[in-house]
Each structure stands twice: as C-alpha cells, then as structure tokens.
Amino acid sequence: MPVVDDDLIVYGVRLLIPKSLRRETLECLHDGHQGIDRTKRRVRQTVYWPKIDRDIENMVSSCIKCRPPLQNQRNEPLWQEDIPSSVFESVSTDYFHVIGRTYLVYIDRLSGWPCVSSCQGIASAANLIRSLRAIFSDTGVPALLKTDGGPQFASSALRRFFLSRWGVEHRITSPYHPKANGHAEASVKIIKKLIMTTAKNGNLDTDEFARGMLELRNTPRADGRSPAQVLFGYPLRSCFPTHRRSFAKDWQKKAEECVVKAEYLRSQAKQRYNSTRRPLSHLKMIKPQDFGTAQVLLSALSPGEIIS
C-alpha cells in the first residue's frame, strides 16, 4: 500500500515514480547496460510503478547498444569451492581484450565486487605486479589468487617474488581451458559488455563507465545481496533515484536467509549440471617394454590409454 513519507509517495522502501519521470528513470537505470533479470533485481530495491517489469523488458530489448554484444545462452561450467569466510580473502583475476585494448579484471569471490584497470602498453609481468600492488593496497591482501596460468601469471617475477613476499597462495588453472577459471570468465563477459557500451575508444575515465560500474556493484545477485551490501553493509548512493529507507540495515536481518538461499542455489546448480554428466573412464597405463616395436605399441593404443 503506497504511503506518503517526507512529501514523497513510497511503496514499501521504493519510490513511486510519476509517469512524467519514468522514461528518465529507465534511462538512468540502464546506465550499467545490464540484462533484464539483473535490472529487475536492481529496481526492486529502489523504485516502483505499475507494470514496471514490462517497461524494463521493453527498454533492455530495444537498446541498440546492447544488441551487438548479445550472445547465445550456453551451459556454464560447474566450479564449486568452499565459500570464503571474509571479503577479498579469495579472488580471481584475468586479462581480456576489447576495442583494441587490454584490461585486467579482479573480482572478489565472496561479494562479487569487480575491479578493472586498463593496461598501459603491453600486458607484461611488471605491469601486472604494478596493478596488483595497487589493488592489494585498496582492498587488502588475498589469501588465495586464482588465475588461468597465462605468461604474465606464470612468470617467476610474479609467483616467486611478488606473491610469495605478500603471502598469497597462487592457484593456476589451465590456460587452454577458460572454463576452469569460470568465476573470472563470467565477470569478464559483464565488464566487456559494459566497456563496449559505455567507454568510447576503450577509455575507462568517463562518467558513463563509472556510473555503469556503480550500478554493477549495486545490483543484487540471485541470493538477494549486492556486492556493495556484502562489502559495506549497505547499498551505495548512485545517480539512480533512491529513498533513504533503501539504505536502512533491515536487509541485514535477513542476511542469514541470503546465505541459506545462496547455498541452496549452489546445490541446485550442481544437481542440474551433474544430471547430464557422467564420469570418464580411468586411463590405462601401458609400459613400452610390454611391446616389441614402436609400430606394435602405436597400433595397440586405444582411446583412453596413455604411455607411462
């Protein structure tokens, strides 16, 4: 039931937007150029008007800038680890290329808080160390850093000297299997789209990109919490119209429910993924001395066998 609060009409904690301001509100809401579901989750924290979900669907589907980056849906890899106990305890990082530039994305596994920086010059190990040093000083030193094992991440300068000096465990996944570092890959897709739609010529120093990043960090995930809420305990003020009650800590009373929901979603994802997967057969070990000649050895090999 709508009520009047400080001369403003509110629907719960959400501002009731009049017709004359709805177009402008939708444009502001779409600063992050996010998909329909993420936009709906964001709007449920802030504003309301009748049939707002339909208006969001029409807005996102008709956005010209959003059309080129759209991709067909595909099955995401299952990669479940223990949930970190604190923010920026476990992080993922990766390089990606878009609009002729190279960028580094760095994301916290617990909150989902993303950081992105543009590489000046080539993406060398020295530039990577410089970027990580700046991020560590802002967000803290992680206990675990996951990368895909690319040349910069596998360098001795990074692993033996920089990370060991800072006390960071470095876990490498296969550089030829992007799904193994799925947490970073999922973030790369979102950041790539944001850069392509808001950063002209790949320049991140713009109001449009900064506002888009702010909306990404304020958008709730499927469990009901946004990265900002997990990290700071409240959503961040942005250019999007928001009533003061949206910044109340009432959501923290339901934090335990969010944790339970997140664990439920993880288990459901694992169940769905495993429903169509079967374990591979074990590799058979064949010793070369068991065969007389190399020709016999090669002809004896079958799929699933390997020479030891």
Based on helices, strands and strand pairing, what is the structural class? alpha/beta
The profile of the biggest β sheet is:
5 strands, mixed
Arithmetic mean pLDDT: 80
Question: Can you give the helix content as a percent range?
Answer: 40-55%
Integer-rounded radius of gyration: 24 Å
Uncertain residue segments: 73-77, 293-298, 300-308
Q: Order of helices and strands, N to C?
A: EEEHHEHEEEHEHHEHHHHHEHE
In the sheet with the most strands, the strands line up as 7-6-5-8-9
Which geometry do the CA atoms define? globular
N-to-C CA distance: 72 Å
- Helical stretch tally: 12
Total beta-strand segments = 11
The amount of beta strand, in percent, is 15-25%
Account of the protein in words:
The protein is an alpha/beta fold and 308 residues long. It is built from twelve helices and eleven strands. The strands form three sheets. The chain has a five-stranded mixed β-sheet, with helices on both faces. Strands 1-2-3-4 form a four-stranded mixed β-sheet, with no helix packed on it. Helix 12 (294-300) links the parallel strand 10 and strand 11 (305-307). It is globular, with a radius of gyration of 24 Å. The model is unreliable at 73-77, 293-298 and 300-308 (pLDDT under 50).
